[in-house]
Specification:
The structure holds two protein chains of two kinds. Chain A is mostly helical. Chain A is built from 14 helices and no strands. In chain A, helix 6 packs across helix 9. Chain A is globular and about 85 Å long. The mean pLDDT of chain A is 87. In chain B, the strands form two sheets. Chain B has an eight-stranded mixed β-sheet with strand order 6-7-8-3-9-10-12-11, with helices on both faces. The chains are: A mainly alpha, B alpha/beta.
Chain lengths: 336, 330
Amino acid sequence: MLKLIYRRLLMMVVMLLGLLAIMFVVANVAPGDPARLAAGPDATRDMVETIRVERGLDKPLPQRFVIYLGSVVTGDLGTSIHTGRAVLHDLAIYFPATLELVLFSIGLAIVLGIPLGVIAAVNHNQLADHIIRIFAVSGVAMPMFWLGLMLQWYLALELNWFPLGGQLDLMSDPPTRITGMLTVDALLTGNFAIFLGAVAHLFLPALSLSFPALASIIRVNRAEMLETLNRDYITNARAQGIGPLRIVAAYALKNALLPTLAMIGLRFGWMLGGTVLVEGVFDWPGVGLYAAKAAISSDFEPIMAVTLVLGASFMLANLLIDLTYAALDPRVRAQV
Amino acid sequence: MSDPILSIRDMRLEFDTFDGVYKAIDGVSLNVAPGEALGLVGETGCGKSVLTRAAFGLVPSPPARITSGEVLFGGRDLLSLREKQLRSIRGAQVAMIFQDPMTYLNPVFKVGTQLVDAIIAQQKGAIARRAARDLALEMLDKVHLPNPQRQFDSYPHELSGGMRQRVLIAMALAAKPKLLIADEPTTALDVTVQAQILDLIAELVSELGLSVIMISHDLGVVAQVCNRVAVMYAGQIVEDAPVADIFDNPKHPYTLGLLKAIPHPLRPVEHLAGIPGSLPNLYTPPTGCRFADRCSHAVPVCTDGKPPLMDLGAGHRVACTLYRKEHVDA
């Protein structure tokens, strides 16, 4: 098991290197002159050139990539032109908010998706199944930013059930910063009112972000449950007189979860990308919004850093998924 | 003769499919006496597995639909029971072992866990986990599984096919049921292992005094274990007789055909007689004898109506027009 983790972490370094290389090229063929942007609108040609040399932007691309990698390894992710701060500092502020949002969303999708998939499969072709399927198809089809806008308009603006956006009410004091995730910090400091406020703010963006994932988890889990419930070992379990609850919740579900897990890993990646849209809609101060603003101003180093952090999160999540696989399936364990 | 332990009467079962209604079982009646080992033989798709599974509520409905008949077991008609009542009979009173030991054990649970679960279900929770575990180990020992303690903590993929079938037999017989349904228990196994498993089943059956329905398409297997044989063809029983009679004095042309298709171990095999043709289409089954168009003895009356099972004496019954009294006399 340790060997697997070690091997996968090593692979991750290689994959992140590839990811950075691709991003580096894309960022540099994109139009816009970072030196000119950094110099400001009133700068003279000489000033722009000075900045270009200062920042090493005059050197050939491969050399610049090596220099960039060198600084990344030492923990220097560069400086954001548009916030004027070290990118590492910005990430420390914005990434926990994104992590909180994404973890809450994927948690919501898993906690709702797996039982709904099971309920649909057990009631195959009956009313509950039809309703859940319609729900799931609409979830797959609906773009999440549009869903976000609709939820915001109806539940926040019309019904006033939820706040429109942001992380906390303007009036409330944020809890002492420990993890950077407001809900966790509020609980850690025992501030329950702030916790409820933070959850209320979290709910709509998390719902928008999780809906497509929820829908596909339902669909995969339903299909897998249907197939598993027809397997011979289920017939045998029934022939032994084992009750339906144990058959569905243990004998079938544990087998059906394996493909569902793969879908969860995949959807987690989509979610990380989706934060760019959803954080925009709900004014959520995370790395998605940070990256979007950076992209508009051709602010190259923050984009690279956000890619790096989101890429690493995705790879770590999938490592976690693979470990869960091994925990669920002895045959996978035997191969490790 | 004492009352049968299981009595299936005029059972009809259909499947609703996209292609129409598939009439899988057509008016089957079958009795199993206490202590009797009945062989149910017939080719693949003749309905032998579906018949026994449907009798105990193991065929999903839909698509299956039982349109008539009753299944009397322990003084009750199983077809009128709810799933919950059926569940209390399955496992506890009727045990089943199946064809492919590779697929009938759950791959992600330990063998021991599955055994203990089954035992607790069979005893309806009236047994402590600890005691169930002891019984499971005792059963593993009883089916001659080497090193039971170790296999108990193994996963199914770590065992061979023969070992898994032993585990399934241990699971099935843990509750000391009254009736064992063995659905081609040796078909998926190597020949040497087949003989061992058959011996084991025979041993346990006599030790526990079980009644048995042994489903097989192998008459040799049936001869080894059973004392009576029912031959099924296309969803009907065509002949039903003591095992010696089936081999020495087969009556139905289909049974005759099956016997001719067995190679003789001492004579060189030059030509094995097969039965020409194939199973009739059961979406639109023939109204007469279902075997008529493959039968070399067929006469025009054969297609007129379904021949009933006729008693020829000495417990030998056959459904064939050729044995109608008027024919025999003529």
